[in-house]
Design a protein that fits this description.
This protein is an alpha+beta fold. The chain has 4 domains: 106 residues, Orthogonal Bundle (Helix Hairpins); 83 residues, HSP40/DNAj peptide-binding domain, CATH 2.60.260.20; 74 residues, HSP40/DNAj peptide-binding domain; 36 residues, no CATH class. Helices cover 27% and strands 25% of the residues. Helix 2 packs antiparallel against helix 3. The longest helix is centred in the last third of the chain and has 18 residues. It is elongated and about 125 Å long. This is Chaperone protein DnaJ.
């Protein structure tokens, strides 16, 4: 079977420049790589043909011999002669060397973006979380609060560089500042984080005694935080640049404050609305009257109870709820009646209640209606 023309394999013309040939090779190598064509049984053979073509055309002398004699230049001692490994296809070591030209293009997304992509001279500090518990009154009014945050801050002794006496970090001799090293494994070149500089690309010969070369130290900071009115449990406040200091002069992270509003002994919150359960006596619910209830702003409101009120009845006080976090006025406050049954009755009280019950047979419409339905239900079951 005759070999295909090398220029045709790469898809370039005979007068193509070395840059054009290399670009065409990279495109073809990525397209035909066996790892990307597991469903194509011919991919590996085509991939080898492309590498064979590039191995010849990238070398000026071998390219000239091929242009003059074609494939015959490497089959009988003509032209540039055969390459080690037999035939026109390069041996394993040469192939791995050629394949490293496209290593970054094939795996750059997974290994940090290609040559030099793994270098991390200065890294951003981590974000921090602080849980802050406030009362319902504080959530209603808003407040300015000072918190103490344990975190890492830039070392003052070395100005965050990690080097003693104002000296500068030097380029890592192992990876030449790239932050990664490569090792040959068969046909493949594997890239790993440099063990000497741990991916930083630089090393510190004379580390700072205060921070041991890290460029930051542990310290507790006092921060003043503005808690706006209307916050509720789950509200998150971001303080830009107040997180952990970056490594070796890198930018700091952010501080996120998560709000938790404590339960209140009187009020229950539902968004912008408040609920208040108020116990009332049987006589007050039956006769009606006025009661005085507290409000979250510290004030008092007088509420009129209609005569004959039942347990669970609600009355609304407009604008007496919580403020909106981003404006929009206030919610409402709902008063819910809890009719209380008296306990520990005296003998005289029991007599009066029994007498009252006899006189109240026509004053309990809900009970009368319910037991009428029960009587009809039982009669229907008998039928």
């Amino acid at each position: 079977m005759s070999k295909r023309d090398y220029y045709e394999l790469l898809g370039v013309s005979r007068d193509a420049s070395p840059e054009e040939i290399k670009k065409a090779y990279r495109t073809k190598a990525k397209e035909l790589h066996p790892d990307r064509n597991s469903d194509n049984p011919d991919a590996e053979a085509q991939f080898k043909e492309v590498n064979e073509a590039y191995d010849v055309l990238k070398d000026a002398d071998r390219k000239a011999a091929y242009d003059r004699f074609g494939h015959a230049a490497f089959e009988g001692g003509m032209g540039g002669g055969p390459r080690p490994g037999g035939g026109g296809f390069q041996g394993q070591g040469d192939f791995a060397s050629a394949f490293s030209d496209v290593f970054d293009d094939l795996f750059g997304d997974f290994m940090g973006g290609g040559r030099g992509g793994g270098r991390q001279r200065a890294t951003r500090g981590s974000d921090l979380r602080y849980n802050l518990r406030v009362t319902l009154e504080e959530a209603y009014n808003g407040l300015q609060k000072t918190i103490n945050v344990p975190t890492s801050v830039a070392c003052d002794a070395c100005n965050g560089t990690g080097a003693e006496g104002g000296s500068e970090p030097v380029t890592c001799p192992t990876c030449s500042g790239i932050g990664k090293v490569r090792a040959q494994q068969g046909f493949f070149t594997v890239e790993r984080t440099c063990p000497t500089c741990h991916g930083m690309g630089q090393i510190i010969k004379n580390p700072c005694k205060s921070c041991q070369g890290h460029g930051r130290i542990e310290k507790e900071r006092a921060l003043s935080v503005n808690i706006p009115a209307g916050v509720e449990t789950g509200t998150r406040i971001r303080l830009a640049g107040e997180g952990e200091a970056g490594m070796r002069g890198g930018p700091p992270g952010d501080l996120y404050i998560f709000i938790e509003v404590a339960q209140h002994p009187i009020f229950e919150r539902e968004g912008m609305h408040l609920h208040c359960h108020v116990p009332v006596s049987m006589t007050a619910a039956a006769l009606g009257g006025d009661i005085e209830v507290p409000t979250i702003d510290g004030g008092r409101s007088r509420v009129k109870i209609p005569a004959g009120s039942q347990a669970g009845r609600q009355m609304r006080l407009r604008g007496k709820g919580m403020p909106g976090l981003r404006g929009g006025g206030h919610g409402d406050m709902y008063i819910e009646l809890a009719v209380e049954t008296p306990v520990n009755l005296t003998g005289r009280q029991k007599e009066l209640l029994k007498e009252f019950e006899k006189l109240s047979e026509e004053n309990n419409p809900e009970s009368t209606n319910f037991f009428s339905k029960v009587k009809s239900f039982w009669e229907g079951m008998k039928g």
